[in-house]
Design goal:
single chain; 358 residues; binds (4S)-2,6-dioxohexahydropyrimidine-4-carboxylic acid; binds zinc ion; Dihydroorotase; hydrolase; EC 3.5.2.3
Length: 358
């Protein structure tokens, strides 16, 4: 059995910088037409200048890899999000929008990796000035929605903030990033301007995979994995390709040493589309995979309107063919003198990627 996906999109991806960027980027660039690249670097990507430089660094890295490996990877489009820090002004946001940077990422201060420069007060006049400018400029607000409360209640507690923002800024598109709690799902129905990205790990794993046996730090991420009920409700959204939900892997690589010290993040970029095909096939939902990994995002983010590359995708799509055949996820991926452990490291999975047309 085979399936060919047209223009797969990963709407939430961490590529990091330096040597890590060079090692992890090809996994996504080979398989996806574009990805939303998260800005939580040190220092954060919180200006037009930094966003332009970061985008160029990603493109340069892809170019070097493509040249060295004689692989046509250049068709990958990095959609770099801006980090909402205290220093980002409405004027800077306007310059960003003019130059095609139309995604803004809000991290509540201290909520996750490299969020020290995030927003301490989401519901205050300074933040509202930014949201109002974003609304005017057609910028999409991507939110890591977690409170500072008890770890399993954080997303639920943030719900009040999603409601307030969705009501106050009805023309601002707001993305609930990596939705993880079944209690957040009704917000998608209640508010026209709320959408969500969904990871592979939140629809296939739960808290038992993290802490049910020996502690498995490779399954530690933020928002933390939740209950089987949450996993099932989110899986249903994915398998039905709910029109307000799209795929965003939140692949977030950390060195083995950093993971052992407790860094949050699951490196899921290796064999990602085969894993999705395996999952959708198992649940007789392969017919919905195209919508989940591409079509929904095209519509939600209106990509054809503001991403130049996307205008060519209809006539000249990036096609990724997957087939039902065994494929082993590597045990680890070397970066300088350290290692990364991918999701499902060393496991045989039932699908593999066989060819792509850029
Ligand atoms: O698990 C996570 N890792 N969640 C995030 O929000 C950030 C990410 C990272 O950057 O490592
Ligand atoms: Zn993330």
């Amino acid at each position: 059995m085979q399936i060919t996906l047209k223009n797969p999109l990963d709407m939430h991806l961490h590529l990091r910088d330096g040597a890590l960027l060079d090692v992890v980027t090809p996994f996504s660039a080979k398989s996806f037409a574009a990805a939303v690249i998260m800005p939580n670097l040190t220092p954060p990507i919180d200006s037009l200048h930094k966003a332009q430089a970061y985008k160029q660094a990603i493109k340069d890295s892809i170019h070097s890899y493509a040249k060295a490996h004689k692989q046509p990877l250049e068709s990958f489009e990095p959609l770099c999000a801006l980090y909402l820090s205290d220093s980002l002004t409405p004027q800077e946001l306007e310059s960003c929008a003019k130059h095609g940077f139309k995604l803004l990422k809000l991290y509540p201060k201290g909520a996750t990796t490299n969020s020290d420069n995030g927003i301490a007060q989401v519901l205050d006049s300074k933040s509202y000035e930014i949201f109002s400018a974003a609304q005017e400029l057609g910028i999409i607000l991507c939110i890591h929605g977690e409170s500072g409360g008890f770890v399993l209640e954080r997303e639920m507690e943030f719900g009040a903030i999603f409601r307030e923002l969705a009501t106050r800024f009805p023309n601002l598109k707001i993305i609930i990033e990596h939705i993880s709690d079944h209690r957040t799902i009704p917000l998608l129905e209640e508010y026209d301007n709320l959408y969500a990205t969904l990871t592979l790990h939140h629809i296939t794993l739960d808290l038992s995979n993290l802490a049910g046996g020996a502690l498995c730090h490779h399954h530690f991420c933020k928002p933390v994995l939740k209950t089987p009920k949450d996993k099932q409700a989110l899986l249903d959204l994915a398998l039905n390709a709910h029109s307000k939900v799209c795929f965003g892997s939140d692949s977030a690589p950390h060195s083995l040493e950093a993971k052992q010290k407790g860094a949050a993040g699951i490196f899921s970029a290796v064999g990602l589309l085969p894993q999705l095909a395996e999952l959708f096939h198992k649940h007789n939902a392969l017919h919905n995979l195209q919508a989940f990994v591409s079509d929904n995002a095209m519509k939600i983010y209106d990509l054809a309107c503001w991403v130049q590359a996307a205008q060519a995708w209809e006539d000249n799509p990036k096609l990724i063919t997957l087939e039902q055949a065994p494929y082993k996820i590597p045990e680890s991926i070397r970066v300088l003198d350290s290692n990364l452990t991918p999701l499902r490291a060393g496991e045989m999975i039932a699908w593999r990627e066989i060819e792509s047309k850029a």
